[in-house]
Amino acid sequence: MKTTRYDEAKYETAEPYDFTWAVKHDATYNDFDHSEKSDGKVTNGVYRVQLPDGRTQIVTYRADNYGYNADVKYTGEAKYPDKPTYSAPVYTAPAYKAPVYVATPVYKTPMVQPEY
């Protein structure tokens, strides 16, 4: 029986990189950004998101041979809209009388008579 030999996987070394991007679109309430830098072994970055409650979430992170470590902070104060008030529902019972049905019993003579 012939066996297939596989070559050991070749891994490319990570290249250093650096990027930054941001989105701010008032019409859709989108406001966030992200920047990251890597030397090929250690990656550091930060991203910021404007949350719906008015606070800003800022995550600063580092990824290396020891894993991913993130520090999450919030700035600002959460603001919630006033709770809406609703009036009690108005319900009126239906104004009709149910029909009255009186059934007259009907007895039929059995068609088969037992024989003894």
UniProtKB/TrEMBL annotation:
<dbReference type="InterPro" id="IPR000618">
    <property type="entry name" value="Insect_cuticle"/>
</dbReference>
<dbReference type="InterPro" id="IPR051217">
    <property type="entry name" value="Insect_Cuticle_Struc_Prot"/>
</dbReference>
<protein>
    <recommendedName>
        <fullName>Cuticle protein</fullName>
    </recommendedName>
</protein>
<dbReference type="InterPro" id="IPR031311">
    <property type="entry name" value="CHIT_BIND_RR_consensus"/>
</dbReference>
<dbReference type="GO" id="GO:0042302">
    <property type="term" value="F:structural constituent of cuticle"/>
</dbReference>
<dbReference type="GO" id="GO:0005615">
    <property type="term" value="C:extracellular space"/>
</dbReference>
<keyword id="KW-0193">Cuticle</keyword>
<dbReference type="GO" id="GO:0031012">
    <property type="term" value="C:extracellular matrix"/>
</dbReference>
<dbReference type="Pfam" id="PF00379">
    <property type="entry name" value="Chitin_bind_4"/>
</dbReference>
